[in-house]
Amino acid sequence: MVVSLRLPSLSSLFLPSVSRRSPAVLRRHHHHILRTPVFAASFSAQTTVSETDDRVDTQKSNRVQDQAVTPRSKDFNAWYLDVIEQAELADYGPVRGTMVIRPYGYAIWEAIQDYLNVKFKETGHSNMYFPQFIPYSFIEKEASHVEGFSPELAVVTIGGGKELEEKLVVRPTSETIVNHMFTQWIHSYRDLPLMVNQWANVTRWEMRTKPFVRTLEFLWQEGHTAHATPEEAEKEAIQMIDVYTKFAYEQTAMPVIAGRKSKVETFAGAVKTYTIEAMMGDRKALQAGTSHNLGQNFSRAFGTQFTDESGLRQHVWQTSWAVSTRFVGGIIMTHGDDTGLMLPPKIAPIQVVIIPIWKKDDDRAVVLNAASSVKEALHAAGIKVKLDDSDQRTPGWKFNFWEMKGVPLRIEIGPRDVSSQSVVVSRRDVPGKQGKVFGISMEPSVLEAYIKDKLDEIQSSLLEKAKSFRDSNIVDVSSYDELKVAISQGKWARGPWSAGDKEELRVKEETGATIRCFPFEQPRGIKSCLMTGNPAEEVAIFAKSY
Amino acid sequence: MVVSLRLPSLSSLFLPSVSRRSPAVLRRHHHHILRTPVFAASFSAQTTVSETDDRVDTQKSNRVQDQAVTPRSKDFNAWYLDVIEQAELADYGPVRGTMVIRPYGYAIWEAIQDYLNVKFKETGHSNMYFPQFIPYSFIEKEASHVEGFSPELAVVTIGGGKELEEKLVVRPTSETIVNHMFTQWIHSYRDLPLMVNQWANVTRWEMRTKPFVRTLEFLWQEGHTAHATPEEAEKEAIQMIDVYTKFAYEQTAMPVIAGRKSKVETFAGAVKTYTIEAMMGDRKALQAGTSHNLGQNFSRAFGTQFTDESGLRQHVWQTSWAVSTRFVGGIIMTHGDDTGLMLPPKIAPIQVVIIPIWKKDDDRAVVLNAASSVKEALHAAGIKVKLDDSDQRTPGWKFNFWEMKGVPLRIEIGPRDVSSQSVVVSRRDVPGKQGKVFGISMEPSVLEAYIKDKLDEIQSSLLEKAKSFRDSNIVDVSSYDELKVAISQGKWARGPWSAGDKEELRVKEETGATIRCFPFEQPRGIKSCLMTGNPAEEVAIFAKSY
C-alpha cells in the first residue's frame, strides 16, 4: 500500500516568520533549552542548486541541512524536539502535556498498527472496545493497582451540566473495566481462553512530559486475556512479549533486550511483568513494550470465576500487554542523526522519494514523465513511493526536506538520466557520495529488484548499527563500584543480582539507574550478587531510563 | 482477509442460568420493556437433529430459532436489543449509557473503517490525532457551537489529584481544537487545502441512550478540512457526503437518501449540513452520516487566516464530516429479521460458515477433512470463511447460531456430500428450502465462482429489498393534513416546503416528525409549500427519527 501523504503545512515551516515561532511552540514546556534559530537563518535564503551534473551538489546542501537541527551530540533532548518539529511528526496540544500527532507521525503509528494487528489476530485475539469512563470504585478494588495509578488519574466530575454521584476515571489502563465485563461473560471452562485486544487512547496525569515518550494522553493497544490455568497465562504473557520483540527487531530495527522486570518495577497489579528495553541514541533505556502475567489478582478483586471441567469454581488466570505511541519516540531516538529522522524501510510511510531535476523549461515535461513512470512501476511492485513534483521548491530544498523526514531511499532523475534511461539512487543511512549510486537502469524489473534489495540492505544495516552501538555500551560488572562507574559513563551495567528491594532502591538513589530487566538471555556459570556477594541466579541490567 | 473470531463467551449465553440473566443485563436501562425469557426456555433443551438426509431438519430448527428473539413486528426495540445481545454485538458498560463493543460488533466497525479509510486517503486526506481534552474556553468561542454542545459535555475537573485551574471538556467533536491547531499551521495559500481525518472516541452526555444508535461514548471518524475558497469547501462537503452515500449503498446495502438539512437541523456551527438518512425496519429515520460546510464560522472564532496569492489575509473556509458506530445500528435495523442479524456480504466479518455434519464417529474425519479443504479453497479465493468444527454443539444449534449472527451463506457438508464431492449451500436471506441448493460441486474453481456469485446476488438482493421497502413507505404529500396522515401511519412524508423555522417546529410538536432533509434528488415542476401554499423551490422529507 502506498501512503500518499498531504503535507500542506510544511512549506510554511520554512518561512522565516514561522521558523522563528515554531521552536517556541515546541519548547514551551521546556524552558531550560535555549537555542538560536539557526534553522530559520539558513533556510530563509533558498539553497542554491548547482546542476553541473544535472543534479544538486549534495555536499553543499548537506552542509545547510547540518544546521537544521541541534546536533545530537550537543543536546540530545533539543535534537529530539527539533526532529519532531521539523519532520512534522507532532505538535503540542493546548492542554499541558498533550500532543497532536501530525500526519507523518501518525503514519508511522499506522505502520505499527498494521503489523501488530495482524499478529494479534494470528495469535487468536479479537479486537473489541471497552468504554473509557471507569467508575472510581473500580480502581480501588485491586490494592496495588490503586496505589500505582491513583496519583495519575484524570477525573470527570460533571456530566450533562450536573455534578455526578460517582466520579468517573478516564481510563489509565483497562484491567478493572475488563474484569468487570469478563465476570459477566465467563462462566465455564468452555468460555476460556478469552483473548481480546483494543486500540484506544489512555490518560495518565504525568508531570514531566515529552512528545511520544510520555504524554498526558497517548494511543496504545492493550491486550487482555483470561485462562483456565496459570501455565496458560504464563505462556500467553511470554508469547506476547515475543511478538513485541520480533516486531522491534524485524520491523523497527531496534535490538531491544527482552526480560523480566524486578519486583519493584512490576506493573501495579501484576504478578510478573515482561518488558522489552531499547537503548536510545543517548544510551538511556526506553521501556518499549510490556506484557504482564496478572495471576489471579484482578479475578479475585472482581470475582471473575469459571466452573472447571470437574465442576469446581475457580478464579481465572490473566494477562495484559501493551505497546503505545511511545514506540514512535523509540524509533526516532534509535536511528535519527544530525540530518534528522532515519526510518527503517519496513516502518517508513514513504520508502522511496523521487526528486525530478530540471533547469530548462524544455526538460520539465520529459523529466516529469520519466519520474511518473518510475513511480508507477515501483508503486505496482508494492513499494511505498512518493514523487515530489512540486514547482515551489528547488531540488536542494527537497533533498534536505526528505532527509529530515528519514525516507530511506531517494531517486534523482534529471535530463541526462532520461537520455541514458537510468536514475541515481541515494541512501539516507550512508551520507554523501558514498551512499549514492549512478546509472541504475530505469527498466522496471531491474529498478524494482535493485530498490527492494537496497531497502532490505538498509533495514539490516540499521539493525546491525543499533546492535553494535548497544553492545558497545553494555558493561559487565561484578561489583557495585563497577556498576557506578558504568552508569556514570552513561552506559548500561549488567551484573549478577540477588539483593532485595531496598538495595535496588539504593542503587536508584545513588546512581539514577534502575533495573531495566533480568534478560531472558542469561550467561552460564556460577554468579554472585554484585551488591551482596551472595549467590545469584541471574544477571540484571541497570540503566538510566526515560 | 479472513477474520477468525474467537467467540468464547457464546456457549455460555445459551446455558439456562445465563439466559435468564442476560436480558436483565441488557435491559437494565429499559425498565419499560417486559418480556418472558422464551429464549432461555427454548434453548435449554438442545435442538434435536434429524439427519434423514445427512443434515438438519431446517424447518424444525427454524421454528426453535423463531422464538429466540422478540418478533420484530411485535416490539421493534425489544427485537433490536435481543439481536444485539444474542448475536453478541455489544453489551452495556458499567457507566450509564456506555457500551462495550464485543468482537463481532467491532468486526463490523472494522469493515466500515477498512473501506472508508481507503476512500479518505484516495480523496487526499491524511489521518492524524488530536488530543481529546479541550480547554473549556475553546468551546465557548463559537456561539452556536457552545449552545449546541454545552448541555452534553463531560468535564474533567481533577487531574493528578488536584483541582484543575481550567476545566477540560472531553471532546464531543473536535472543530475547536482542530482550529486552534490549524491557526498555527496555516499561513499562506500554499498550506491549503489542509485535509485531515481522525478515528477517535467522542463523548456526549446523552440522556436517552440505545446501543450503537446513541451512547454516551462512541467511536467515529471526523474529517476536518480548510480551503482557500468557499467553492472548494462546498465541493469538499459534497464530495464527502457522496463518499458516504456510495458506501451506504454499495457496502451496507442501505438505500439512504442524501440531502441538505434544514436550518433548524443544521450542525451547531455549520453553514450547511448534508446528511444521509436511512429508513430503519420500523420506518423511523436514522441520520447515518453528515458532512458540514462550516464556512468561516470557526476560522473567524479562532483567527485561522492565510495570506492569499495577492498578499491579502483571509479566513479559511472549512468542512467537517463524520460517521460513527451508529452505522452498525443502522445495518442491524435495516436488514435484520426475526431470525436475527442479516449482514450484507461486503460488510460481513464472516461471509460463509461451513458446518460439518456427521452422525457416526467413522464419518467424522472424512467430513472434517473435506470441510477443511473447502475452507482453504474459499479462503485462498479471498472469501471470509469460518469452519465451525466444534464438537460441543449440534449442527442444528450451529445453524441457528450463525443465522442469528447474520452470516450470508452457510455450507453444509455431510458424509453423502463427501461421497458425491458436493456441498449444500443455504442463503441467510431466503429462509427454508427455497434458499437451499443441493449438489454444488466441491471442485474449488466451481465452488468459488458459485459462492462469489451468490454473495453478489445477496448483496444486490438486500439493497433491492430495502429500496422497495423504503419507496413503499414514502408518501408524496401536498398539504399539512396529508403529511399528518402519512406520519401517523408511521411513514415518511415528502412534500414541497418553503415555510419558516416556526412552522417546522410546529410540525415537530404536533406530529413528532422533523425535516430529515431536502433531498438532492428533486422532482421537477412548480411546487407550492404544503404548509403555506407559497411557492416552494424544493420538497423536504419529514419523518420520525432516532
TrEMBL record, chains A, B:
Domain Aminoacyl-transfer RNA synthetases class-II family profile: 96-344
Keywords recorded for this protein, A-Z: Aminoacyl-tRNA synthetase, ATP-binding, Ligase, Nucleotide-binding
Catalysis: reaction(s): tRNA(Pro) + L-proline + ATP = L-prolyl-tRNA(Pro) + AMP + diphosphate
Enzyme class at the top of the EC tree: ligase
EC number(s) given by UniProt: 6.1.1.15
Gene label: LOC103337236
Gene3D superfamilies noted in UniProt: Anticodon-binding domain, Bira Bifunctional Protein, Domain 2, C-terminal domain of ProRS
Pfam families recorded: HGTP_anticodon (PF03129), ProRS-C_1 (PF09180), tRNA-synt_2b (PF00587)
HAMAP family registered for this protein in UniProt: Pro_tRNA_synth_type3
Protein name listed in UniProt: proline--tRNA ligase
Organism in which the protein naturally occurs: Prunus mume
CDD domains for the chain: ProRS_anticodon_zinc, ProRS_core_arch_euk
Coiled coil: none
